[in-house]
Structure formats: C-alpha cells, structure tokens
Amino acid sequence: MSAAGRAAQLGLSHVLLEKTDHLSDTIYKYQKGKHVMATPSQLILRSDQEFDAGKKEDILDKWQRRTTDLGVNVMFNADVKSIKGTGEAIPGSIQKIVSRARDGSSTTTELQRYAPPYAIELTNGQTVIAENVILAIGTQGNPNLMRCPGGDLPHVTYQLDDPYAVLDQHIIVVGTGDAGIENARGLVEDSAQGNTVTVLNRSPKSTNVRESFATAKEPNAKALVEDDAAGKLSIRYETETKSVEPGWITLSTRDGEERIRCDRIIARIGSAPPRAFVEGCGIEFASADRLAFPTLTPQFESTAPGIFVIGALAGYPLIKHCMNQGYDVVEFVNGNTGLKPADEPLLEAKFAGLPGKRSVNEWLEFLRTNVAILDGMTTLQLREFMLDSSARAYAKGATIFEKNDPGSSLFAIASGSVHVRLDTNDPSKIVAIPSGTIFGEVGLISGRKRGATIVAAEDTICIEISRNAALKLQSQVPTAKRAIERISTERQILQMFGSGLTSADIAEVVETSKIQQVRAGEAIINEGDEDRDIYVIRVGSMVVEKEVGGKPVFLSYLPSGSYVGEMAVIDGGQRTATVRAAIKSEVIKIDGKAFRRVLAAKPALLERARKEMEVRRKTNAFIESKKDSFSGVVDLYSEQAKFLVAQGLGEATDVLLIDERLCVGCDNCEKACADSHDGLSRLDREAGKSFAHLHVPTSCRHCEHPHCMADCPPNAIHRGPDGEVFIDDTCIGCGNCQRNCPYGVIRMDKVPPKKPSLLNWLLFGAGPGPGEPSYKWSKKNTKYTGNPAVDEALDRKKAIKCDMCAGIEGGPSCVRACPTGAAIRVSPDEFLTVARLENEGA
C-alpha cells in the first residue's frame, strides 16, 4: 500500500494487487477495537500514507481515504497464483544466476525464467505484466499446520475472519498466543452467540499467567483467565490434540486421553514464510531452515532481479518498517539509487563514537565478520538489530562494568580483548576474553547484578546488546543461541567452582550438561532421593526445604547464580533436603559422574566444596536441634518465608517491607514519597498483604526481569545504575506496564500542578500541605491555556512507579521518613536465609 502510494505520487505505472476486497487484510482481521502501535517510536515514517498509533478501525479508514486521494490503482480480489520471468535482461544485482551461466550450469531458459518483465498470473485467469514486483505478502498465509491424525479435515481452520458469524458450535482453539486468545474471546463475547469454547494450553496452570501463557501479552492472558473464571469459556491446561475426527476431538491430558465434542478447530500455532511460492518466483533463502528469510540486497532486491521483498517476509514484521521499505523500494526503482534507508541517521549516530571513518554498511560488515554470534545474520537483520544495541570504544585499562553493577545486556567484542578481574584487590588475577566472543551473559540470562569487573585489555570495540535484541537474536539465529548457551554454561560453571579450573578441565561437564526449564513450585531435588546430579540456577530462584515433624520447613533462598546438590556427589547418601523453584526458573543440570571426575583431578576444588558443604550441614543440624524446643519459631519463620516468596520476593531485587510491630500508621512514608516525586506517591502503605508482623505494601519489587518492560512501545522503562527500574519522560500512557505488572504497583495518573513550598504552607497556609494533593486542589490549580494540544498534554496520564528515589541524596524517602524504623528495603537473597533465624531466634 505504501509502495503503491509512492508510485502514484511519482506518476509511475503501477497496480496494487489485493487478495481480498479490502486493503491491509492482516490489520483488517485484528480484534475489534484493537489498539495498533506505531513502533519503533524513534524511527521516522517515510511514506505518503499516514500512520499513528490508534484503533485499527480508525487507521484503516485513514488509509482507505488516503489511497483514494493519491489515485492508487488498486485491483481487489486479485489472488496471485504464480510469478514467472519472461525477459532476457540480467541486471548486475543477480550474481548467482550470472555465475552459473558463465560456468555452463545455467541455461538461457532458466535465465529468462527469473528475469523481467514478469507475468503475474491470477487465480481468476488474468495476467499482469510488470518490470518490477514488490512482495509484501507477510507470512500469515502459510500457517503452521496441525500434524496429528485428522489434522487435515475441513473443519480444522487456521484463521477466524469474523467470530460473531460463528453461532451455537463446540469450538476448540489450539494455541495460546495473542491470536488464539483474541479468537477464543471473540467467540464468546456475546452470550447470544451460544458457542462452547475450549482453549488447549500445553503449559500447566500457574498463579502467574505469564508462566501459563508465555507467548501472549499478559493483558490478553489475564482477560482469558478471567473469562474462564466467569464460565464464558474453558481453558484445558497440560493438554494437547491426540487426533481429530468429524464432530469429535481426542485430547492427551495429564490424566490420560479424553474424547469430547468438536464442531470446529481453530489452530493459531504460528506461521512461516510461504517458501514454495517464494522459491517458485526464483527467490533464494538464506538457509534451509523453515523459518529462514529470503536473501536480499540492502535495497530489498531478491535473487530474482526486479523482485523485491519487504515486511514480515523480509524479517521486518513491524508496520512502520514495512511502510518505509515500500516507499524506499519504489524510489530505488525510479532511479533514486542514492536514497538511504530511513534508519540510516539512527545507525550513523550509533557508530559516530567509534574510531575510523567507516560507512554504516562497512561497520555492519565489520561486525558480522568479527563477532561470531552475528555471523548468521543478513545485513537487513543487522540493521534492525543495531537499532536496539550500542557500539562503544574503550581505551586500554577502561572499566566496562564493575562487579555488582546492575545490567542485563550482553557484550560482544568486535576488536581488541578484555580481562575479567577475579580479585578486585589483585589485578594479576584475571581471565582473558579474546576478540570475537561475548561477555556479560550472566546478567543477560539471570537479570542479577554483574558477577565480575571487566576491563579493556587493549583498545577495544564492543557492541552492547540490549536484552530484547539478544533474545531476538537467539530466536532468529540458531547458531547464535547455541553459542551463547554453551559459553554461558561454561563460564557459569567456572565462576561457581573456580579453584584454578580451565575450560579444558570442565569440557566433559559442559558437553554432558543440560539446560532445563522448571515450573514454579516444581522440585529439582527431593529429600530422600539418591540421585547424584548438581544444579546451577541459571534463571529465577529456588527455595530449600527440609521435612521436620512431618511438614516442610523453609531453610534458605537460592538466587540465580547459586548451585545445589554437591553434597550427594561428594559424600553419597540420600538427599538431605528438597529444592523447588520459587518462580519459573531455568537450571543447568550437571552430570554427577562427570563432575566427580573433575573433583578427583582437582583436590583444591574438592576441599573448597567440602567447606561450603559443611556450612549447609550446620544449618541442617541447627534445624534438627531446634525442632522440639524451638519448633514454634522455626514454623513461624518457615511460613513467613513462604509468604514472602509468594508475594514476589522470588524474583525481586529490592523490596519494601514494614514491621507492623513498629508502624504507627502516620503515613509519613507515603507523604515523603509524594513530596519527592511531583506530588504523586509511588506506594500504598495500607494495601498489600501481611503475615504475622510483616507487611508487604504495594510498592515496586524491581524484578530481575521486570514484567513492566515486556511490552513498552516507546521503550520508556529502564534499569538504573543502582538496579532501580524506572520510567522516563517518553512514556505515552498506554497502560501496558500497569496491565503487565502482577503486583499492582504501577498507577496511571497525570502529574498535578507544582505545590508551594513546605515553608509557605507552614507560614502562610499556601498549598495542600505534605503528601499527595487532593483531586479538587489539583483540578483548581491546573492552568489551562485554551490551546487543545497544550491542555491535552496537561491532562495526559503517565505511568507512575517507585524508582527507589534515584538521584535523591540519602536513598529512598519512604525509609528515611519513617520515625520508628518500621520501613526497610531488603534484597531477598540477604533477607530470606535461615542464618537470620540462627542469629535472632535463639
């Protein structure tokens, strides 16, 4: 659509082929009233069409009107059957066919097949002849298919055009991503539809919807769970399709097989590029992988000269990217070969601080050539990748980050090398990391603070890869995912056990280790078992429990980076405690026999392990010794610890707690918070839950992997230098962070007018006084101008949350303002330990 609009503006002969009777079919099929985001926010829109965030109906209406105004030549109901070359011209951009022709392996017929002009054959028998073809067909037309018996029956569909047209049917929805959830909810939105809808979810049921619906946005998942609770539909957890037959479906459940009524199956299980059709046009793909993208030039030209590929089929699923590409391709076809991509200024700024005078394309090639994990990316993928990453130059001796700094980004060394300082007091104790590899992977994976200090061993160029960019890299480039997992496993094992180990020493341990996903509440070690494996906590956290008097007693909390299970490897015997996941976690499972061989070869490591094991033995002995005389306190502490983990401390890095034995209800904490933050308090003292004397108010936990960051269109949420999670001024007030936070600690509100000083209030009674001003005072003192744009900005709501008083001298205001010391901020790995019970309880 954007490409056709540019062609119309330039007066080029063109036609826009639409398969359906309307524009933009993908967006047309979005859920009714769906809010469409115009991301990336920092990227300019280069198109003759308008596009701003808004409801899909409004966007489609604007596009329809603008397409008409531009005089675009649109052919509706034009379903393309094939695209075949008919000419003999071979542009210089198609090197592979030319080289095959030179060595005699390609015939003239083959050359003509993939050369313009192209005959575009439609299913209605019409043929369109074009010198250039722009494929903007996406991947939705090639859905992943159900592969069970009966999966090809006619009542199995992969799209739901109009949920309100389906009435009085028993419907199974397979797939719990956003599309599947929106389809399921649309089928039961009106009770008059009379549908019985069952959603199949392979994941187990969890109190945290993010764990049960990992591929969906949290607001969608929450709404689905609410519909289930209200009886509108049914969610079947840990359930998959076994077979399909007319009128029935057989399910594989946790408790066995079950056969139920089924009139229709809607499978929303993802899609892949329509490879057969695309390859039939003469377009080659980057690899044989089913999810690979076509091979394209920087101008989006494919290996078939004159055929260009843009949008999701090119690896750019965002609307704004696709619209810019459509504009750029038509400009290129029209002879504007000097036009740079819309993201060129952004990328130039990314590389501006690096030594040497390279162009953007030269820098991208330099990175792909020198950084192993980027080798499998196309130039176009690299461009998008770098928009979420930063290029930095470090002089020899410069510190890249310090031990215990917060950070979840990954670093790749493009040139030079770095040293890992094992002992901050002894610069000679280092581990060298050479050019081409990565570091910082522990922060990326676990979300915890940096485990070591890294300094540049020589003048060095690094790419700092944001967490989002790193996760996308791993999903798009399998070789990068494997490399990151192997390096992170090896380094985490070396960091855990140390004692002079080298990569060669633990090669067998790394090769035989496995990365294992663990559901919240699931045990990796059970008390009394006789297995011999060791577990390193890669992501999340664990709790250790011991059965005392027939019930589990909480022993300790293990954050990511900890290891457990070595006692059975060293001394044999049964497991002395149970270890289970506090939240959804990931562990490295190390083969006990392989690790035992490392211990046998390294006496220093064995001695260190025995010392650490002795500490755990003393803890177990303490619990055993107190189980009778001190059982009440042990039970209370254990239940209190379990309560705190249930309140989110299992994924927190910093949490506010209130000792209700000391709290006098003065609300100084809330008032101080408001006075430190534009008159809006970031905490609610009375809200939240309590156990015994310990109260967890509604205030940010500053999670390891913050839920609020998961879907922030302008990327306004960041982690600060002290680990605080904060929202900057680019917030657009969409409310996604508020909906995604499982702890209800984010509020949407407008900033009130500035209050007079406290002294003015004390002396002259000016202003509302300490704390948050009343709605009445704020409304009365808001100075409207009569300018709609200015007044709208005054009333615009933004996301408000605790930032740990970053930048305010003295630390969190809530703690400083508490007159009795009832309010404290704690790190869970320091607070949730039986050592406190040993020190305080006796």
Automatic annotation (TrEMBL):
Molecular functions (GO terms): 4 iron, 4 sulfur cluster binding; metal ion binding
Domain 4Fe-4S ferredoxin-type intervals: 654-686, 723-751, 796-829
Keywords from the named record: 4Fe-4S, Electron transport, Iron, Iron-sulfur, Metal-binding, Transport
InterPro entries in UniProt: 4Fe4S_Fe-S-bd, 4Fe4S_Fe_S_CS, cNMP-bd_CS, cNMP-bd_dom, cNMP-bd_dom_sf, FAD/NAD-bd_sf, RmlC-like_jellyroll, RnfB_subfamily
Domain of life per record: Bacteria
Gene3D superfamilies xrefs: 3.30.70.20, FAD/NAD(P)-binding domain, Jelly Rolls
Any Pfam family matching the protein: Fer4_11
Domain Cyclic nucleotide-binding: 373-473, 497-616
Name of the protein in its database record: CRP-like cAMP-binding protein/Fe-S-cluster-containing hydrogenase component 2/thioredoxin reductase
